[in-house]
């Protein structure tokens, strides 16, 4: 089929103008398979190597010692060995920033006298005063309290979201939205467990923040799906077509919204933690960046295809074949609705919901959307007296 003149000739141009015709429903299996792989990898990694929990969750003692040419990771390990502290169970990292470099040392809880000896050993090895060394002690019970509160907040949030979406839209949309949010959090957790990034309270806060971004993208798509579902109800359009049309119409909006949200997070990583040395910002921004990227994927390739799958084979079936290619593009840009509609469907088929269409009795229909949606009512047959 020849492309109309008002349709952009290139893919980026069609994307910018909202003229794409991507068959999201037709590729739903690929998106869902990728999502399942992410979940399987995350769960496997959690069982095999677990999460790299920070001091606030595991409890223990930590030092930040100024680094120099004379003091680094090896020298810190020597100080621990001299004080009978096993190096294998300790975490020693060299953290560098533009204006400051230091060696972060974290060990299990040791007696106060031994901790003071370790501090003195670090000061002597680094050639600095004891006051220049940062020391912190955290009990593991504090991390447990944070975890319990985070889980409680997560459960309450999911319940409220499910109720809201069920009332505002419907229960199938609530299931799809919850599945998308679970996918986003699991993907973020998977990145942390696979690459062994340290999990801190800032990371947990970022995980909870991810849910909000994921829900926003999904609600934008579902709102357009509901709008188009009512718009095309009179032509009995397949729900897969409604989802495809809606996804293509909001695709550029989702991309623009995600880019505008991701750019500040990247600034936190590059400027906040990279240039200014704010490590807490790095812990928060990294989890947030991963979750936001996952939210873009899940709203397009998880939530909407899952919704279309849940809605398929429910109610009275459509007489129209699913739109693809230029027919789908025509519906997306609002110029019309294309497909193949049966011209002779007997009453028996209409009652049993059969989806069979006699090929010999079909004809391609390309009509303006306004004409299809506002067609005059069919006149009733007069009864014989």
- Bulk shape: elongated
Q: Give the CATH architecture of the largest domain.
A: Up-down Bundle
Number of domains: 2
The topology string of helices and strands comes to HHEHEHEEHEHHEHHHHEHEH
Using only C-alpha atoms, the radius of gyration works out to 29 Å
Instruction: Report the average pLDDT across residues.
Output: 77
Q: So what's the CATH class of the largest domain?
A: Mainly Alpha
| Total DSSP E strands | 8
CATH superfamily of the largest domain: Multidrug efflux transporter AcrB transmembrane domain
In terms of topology, how is this protein built?
Blueprint (H helix, E strand, L loop, with lengths): L10 H7 L10 H21 L3 E2 L1 H4 L1 E7 L6 H10 L8 E6 L4 E7 L4 H15 L7 E5 L1 H29 L2 H24 L3 E2 L1 H31 L7 H37 L3 H33 L13 H8 L4 E6 L4 H6 L9 E6 L1 H5 L12
Parallel strand pairs: 1-6
Antiparallel strand pairs: 2-4, 2-5, 3-4, 7-8
């Amino acid at each position: 089929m020849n492309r109309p003149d008002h349709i952009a000739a290139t893919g980026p141009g069609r994307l910018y103008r909202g003229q794409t015709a991507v068959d999201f429903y037709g590729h739903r299996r690929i998106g869902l398979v990728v999502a399942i792989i992410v979940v399987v990898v995350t769960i496997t990694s959690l069982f095999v190597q677990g999460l790299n929990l920070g001091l606030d969750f595991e409890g223990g003692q930590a030092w930040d010692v100024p680094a120099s040419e004379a003091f680094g990771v090896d020298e810190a390990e020597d100080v621990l060995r001299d004080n009978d502290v096993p190096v294998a169970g300790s975490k020693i990292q060299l953290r560098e920033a533009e204006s400051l470099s230091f060696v972060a040392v974290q060990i299990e809880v040791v007696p106060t006298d031994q901790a003071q000896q370790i501090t003195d050993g670090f000061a002597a090895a680094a050639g600095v005063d004891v006051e220049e060394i940062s020391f912190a002690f955290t009990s593991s019970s504090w991390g447990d309290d944070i975890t319990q509160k985070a889980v409680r907040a997560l459960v309450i949030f999911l319940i409220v979201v499910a109720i809201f979406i069920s009332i505002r839209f419907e229960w199938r949309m609530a299931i799809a939205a919850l599945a998308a949010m679970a996918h986003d959090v699991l993907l973020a957790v998977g990145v942390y467990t696979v690459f062994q990034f340290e999990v801190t309270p800032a990371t947990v806060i970022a995980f909870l923040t991810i849910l909000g971004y994921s829900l926003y993208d999904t609600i934008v798509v579902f709102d357009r799906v509901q709008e188009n579902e009512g718009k095309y109800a009179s032509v009995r359009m397949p729900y897969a077509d409604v989802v495809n049309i809606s996804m293509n119409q909001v695709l550029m909006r989702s991309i623009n919204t995600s880019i505008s949200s991701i750019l500040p997070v990247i600034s936190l990583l590059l400027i906040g933690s990279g240039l200014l040395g704010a490590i807490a910002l790095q812990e928060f921004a990294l989890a947030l960046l991963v979750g936001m990227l996952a939210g873009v994927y899940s709203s397009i390739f998880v939530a909407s295809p899952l919704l279309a799958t849940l809605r398929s084979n429910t109610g009275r079936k459509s007489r129209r074949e699913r739109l693809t290619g230029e027919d789908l593009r025509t519906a997306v840009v609002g110029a019309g609705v294309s497909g193949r509609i049966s011209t002779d469907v007997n009453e028996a088929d209409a009652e049993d919901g059969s989806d069979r269409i006699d090929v010999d009795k079909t004809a391609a229909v390309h009509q303006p959307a306004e004409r299809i949606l506002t067609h005059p009512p069919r006149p009733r047959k007069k009864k014989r007296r």
